[in-house]
Design a protein that fits this description.
six-stranded parallel sheet; Rossmann fold; alpha/beta; 7 helices; 6 strands
């Protein structure tokens, strides 16, 4: 129970990596806020996996690319659990396109979810986090350092996440908030299964340059 009495907010926690993080945090003793934007059914499924095991959690709908909605997430967390210790910026968008197909909408959608949401969430979270060896974790991507020929926008947004994490660590570290990031390689999730362009050849190539864990 390493996280006993801690409170964690995980963005984009309805499914995939975010859902797994929420479940693991709860299993380690944390109270968890499962944020989702549109996938209510999946968020409820994550909640249903936590509560029967004695975990404390609730789901909260918020489009974290909008400041007005982010501003409601953290006060609700504080009111429900009396504190905030951990923020996991997991929400992300990955839709690969070659240069000739990239349009403004594609660019803005990725940077709103993968970059702007991190800034908005951290900006609000620091108002409520207890600042006693607590932490913010940004979920990046191996793509930020290992490019593919059609991930121009996605890779750029995840590289921005890396850069922001470093800057936030310097700014918030002196106040007692640790800021780190992890850059997962390919993880089998519902989202990955929906990416029809991820061929077995691509999977094998990524697997060859990463440590694979069952």
């Amino acid at each position: 129970m390493r996280l006993k009495d801690k409170v964690a907010v995980i963005t984009g926690a309805a499914r995939g990596i975010g859902s797994a993080i929420a479940k693991r945090c709860a299993a380690k003793g944390a109270s968890v806020v499962i944020n989702y934007a549109t996938r209510k059914t999946e968020a409820e499924r994550t909640l249903a996996a936590i509560e029967p095991k004695g975990g404390r959690a609730f789901i909260f709908q918020a489009d974290i690319t909008k400041a007005s909605e982010v501003e409601k997430l953290f006060p609700t967390t504080k009111e429900s659990f009396s504190r905030l210790d951990i923020l996991v910026n997991n929400a992300g968008l990955d839709d690969f396109m070659t240069l000739e197909r990239i349009a403004e909408e594609h660019f803005h959608s990725h940077y709103n979810v993968n970059v702007l949401s991190v800034i908005l969430a951290v900006k609000e979270a620091v108002k409520y986090i207890d600042k006693k060896d607590d932490c913010i974790l940004d979920i990046g991507s191996l793509s930020s350092t290992h490019p593919h020929d059609d991930d121009l926008v996605y890779r750029g947004s995840k590289a921005a996440t890396d850069a922001m994490t470093a800057s936030l660590a310097l700014e918030l570290g002196p106040s007692g908030i640790r800021v780190n990031s992890i850059n997962p390689a390919m993880v089998k999730t519902e989202g990955l299964d929906e990416l029809t362009f991820i061929t077995q050849e691509i999977r094998n190539g990524i697997a060859a340059m990463t440590l694979c864990v069952d």
